[in-house]
């Protein structure tokens, strides 16, 4: 199998010839993309002042001493890479064949609630150079255990899938622990009242979702993920050593350098709303320039309980379900997410 047979057909000309039609570029690339050091938070010695400053001024930080075993991180990376390097058709069938709530997507990270790529309105021809698996953590147990029927290839794939499930469950437990610890610390810096069920309404562990991404190698410049903010409360990223993540700070784009054995935490739109705009949901994108290597990352997202009403002074009261429905409607009709301005009475984009 040639390497490109494992990629979606829509990626193949960009991989081989660069991007003459500009299909993978959906916004002008700004020139001033320099490297930047983001704040560092030590999870074993949480410093409230550094955390407050990181949330207020950056909306993103690097996490050290996170307690996820390195062995688990590298095994997870290995199995994800191996599943993502299967032939394209094979990946399409992978989760469908075992009737699982996990899904395979490509060309856009914008998915509907079943994990299928959303058809994008006016920019339907735009393909971003990313593919991956969508893994709702609470559904992992529904992935059937390995069966030994079928040919050798099928049996090998089932056993890979079983290892993937076991590793994901273990990683999911660690990353959920980290998200809860960080959310409780952030809530303290905001003097948020978390009595009763309030913590699990704002950050509902059962909504945890993991995306395993592959960004192909590409000649020239390719956009892996458009500029966006995450809709989550908190997102936690594990990236490989390739680089490509960029953040917007003071109206400029900066590259975030990968640092081995650390995680990157960014605040999402729900955290911004819960904090009454004291903390921000950082704008970011993934851009690859003359990368001879593919890039792999694993991203965890966690959301509020679907029907929990988020009240704050700058937004009309809304539930996460309403927010998600609005995002999906905008992606389908406009080709892009609008996000919080849809809920901001002062914004011209308010609905
Ligand atoms: O892969 C990455 O580095 C970032 C992914 C991301 O921003 C997202 O999934 O929202
Ligand atoms: Fe993101």
Automatic annotation (TrEMBL):
Protein's UniProt keywords contain Oxidoreductase: yes
Domain called Fe2OG dioxygenase: residue spans: 205-304
Presence of the UniProt keyword Transit peptide in the record: no
PROSITE patterns according to UniProt: FE2OG_OXY
Keyword entries, A-Z: Iron, Metal-binding, Oxidoreductase
Signal peptide range in chain numbering: none
GO MF, one example: oxidoreductase activity
Stated family: Belongs to the iron/ascorbate-dependent oxidoreductase family.
Name of the molecule in the record: Fe2OG dioxygenase domain-containing protein
Origin organism lineage: Eukaryota, Viridiplantae, Streptophyta, Embryophyta, Tracheophyta
């Amino acid at each position: 199998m040639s390497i490109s047979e494992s990629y979606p057909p829509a990626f193949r000309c960009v991989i081989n010839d660069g991007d003459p039609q500009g299909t993978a570029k959906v916004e002008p690339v700004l020139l001033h993309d320099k490297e930047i050091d983001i704040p560092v938070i030590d999870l074993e010695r949480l410093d409230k002042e550094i955390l407050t400053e990181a949330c207020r001024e950056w909306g993103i930080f690097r996490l050290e001493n996170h307690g996820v075993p390195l062995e688990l991180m590298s095994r997870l990376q290995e199995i994800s890479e191996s599943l993502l390097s299967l032939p394209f058709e094979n990946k399409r069938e992978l989760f469908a064949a075992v009737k699982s709530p996990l899904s395979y997507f490509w060309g856009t990270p914008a998915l509907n609630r079943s994990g299928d790529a959303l058809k994008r309105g006016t920019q339907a021809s735009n393909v971003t150079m990313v593919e991956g698996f969508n893994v709702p953590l609470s559904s992992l147990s529904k992935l059937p255990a390995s069966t030994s029927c079928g040919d050798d290839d099928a049996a090998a794939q089932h056993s890979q899938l079983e290892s993937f499930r076991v590793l994901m469950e273990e990683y999911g437990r660690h990353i959920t622990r980290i998200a809860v610890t960080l959310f409780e610390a952030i809530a303290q810096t905001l003097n948020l009242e978390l009595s009763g069920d309030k913590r699990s309404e704002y950050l509902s562990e059962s909504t945890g979702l993991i995306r395993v991404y592959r960004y192909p190698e590409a000649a020239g410049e390719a956009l892996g993920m458009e500029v966006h903010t995450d809709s989550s409360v908190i997102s936690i990223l594990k990236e490989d050593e390739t680089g490509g993540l960029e953040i917007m700070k003071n109206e400029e784009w900066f590259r975030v350098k990968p640092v081995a054995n650390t995680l990157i935490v960014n605040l999402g739109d729900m955290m911004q709303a819960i904090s009454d705009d004291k903390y921000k949901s950082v704008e970011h994108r993934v851009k690859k320039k003359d990368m001879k290597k593919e890039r792999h990352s694993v991203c965890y997202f966690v959301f509020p309980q679907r029907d929990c009403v988020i009240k704050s002074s700058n937004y009309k009261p809304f539930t996460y379900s309403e927010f998600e429905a609005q995002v999906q409607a905008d992606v389908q009709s406009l080709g892009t997410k609008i996000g919080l301005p849809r809920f901001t009475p002062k914004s011209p984009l308010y609905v």
